[in-house]
Amino acid sequence: DAGVTQSPTHLIKTRGQQVTLRCSPISGHKSVSWYQQVLGQGPQFIFQYYEKEERGRGNFPDRFSARQFPNYSSELNVNALLLGDSALYLCASSSGQPETQYFGPGTRLLVL
Amino acid sequence: QKEVEQNSGPLSVPEGAIASLNCTYSDRGSQSFFWYRQYSGKSPELIMFIYSNGDKEDGRFTAQLNKASQYVSLLIRDSQPSDSATYLCAVGASGGSYIPTFGRGTSLIVHP
């Protein structure tokens, strides 16, 4: 079975631009979570969606938004990019036990 | 603020030794605990999860949980150079939240 997929794998943007990251969960998984990971730190929670409803939001500014589609795939949008948004963005999916999360390969975002 | 604490390391052990990785958490009501392995430049990979006090073994890995002391550990027996990675501890939240909190990870180096 295919694991969690994310696109793109790498992205370079400039300050002020907008970016959209995409995630497809493991088949049968209905929950998707987004995390930001900077070097030397653990993943920081951004959003969680379950059955297309937002279940949780981390301590991130309103420039960050997300949504989940009927097929359970998800998008993370970041507006007005800052240099500090440079990080590895991880998507994780989970099934009946939402906390048992399986990560995708991540999207590495560099903001110049 | 729920916290998960890990020593960032690096923890250096010789090949064939037992590596012991530790994690403490602040949310006394937490019920689920996870260990992830993350190779440099890659995404986290779930190794084990544990819900009950005591030990849980899976191959060379043993997770140990002590809820009274708010302490969870991961033992890696017969450590191999391929075990060299960062190990992330994640703790599930109490109160119906499905969002785990991650520690910053411990870097493990297994030298031949």
Give the number of helices of chain A.
0
Termini gap of chain A: 37 Å
The assigned structural class of chain B equals mainly beta
Q: How many whole angstroms does the radius of gyration of chain A measure?
A: 13 Å
Contiguous uncertain segments of 5+ residues of chain A = none
Total E-strand runs of chain B? 11
Helix coverage percent of chain A = under 10%
The profile of the biggest β sheet of chain B is: 6 strands, mixed
Poorly predicted residue ranges of chain B? none
> Helix-strand pattern of chain B, N to C?
EEEEEEEEEEE
- Inertia-based shape of chain B: globular
Largest sheet: number of strands, sense, barrel closure of chain A: 7 strands, mixed
What does this 3D model show about the protein?
The complex is a heterodimer of chains A (112) and B (112). Helix content of chain A is 0%, strand content 51%. With 112 residues, chain A is mainly β. In chain A, the strands form 2 sheets. In chain A, strands 2, 4, 5, 6, 9, 10 and 11 form a 7-stranded mixed β-sheet that branches. Chain A has a 4-stranded antiparallel β-sheet with strand order 1-3-8-7, with no helix packed on it. Chain A is globular. Chain B has 112 residues and is mainly beta. In chain B, the strands form 2 sheets. In chain B, strands 2, 4, 5, 9, 10 and 11 form a 6-stranded mixed β-sheet that branches. Chain B has a 5-stranded antiparallel β-sheet with strand order 1-3-8-7-6, with no helix packed on it. In chain B, a hairpin with a 2-residue loop joins strand 6 (54-58) and strand 7 (61-66). The chains are: A mainly beta (112), B mainly beta (112). Chains A and B meet through strand 4, strand 5, strand 9 and strand 10 of A and strand 5 and strand 10 of B.
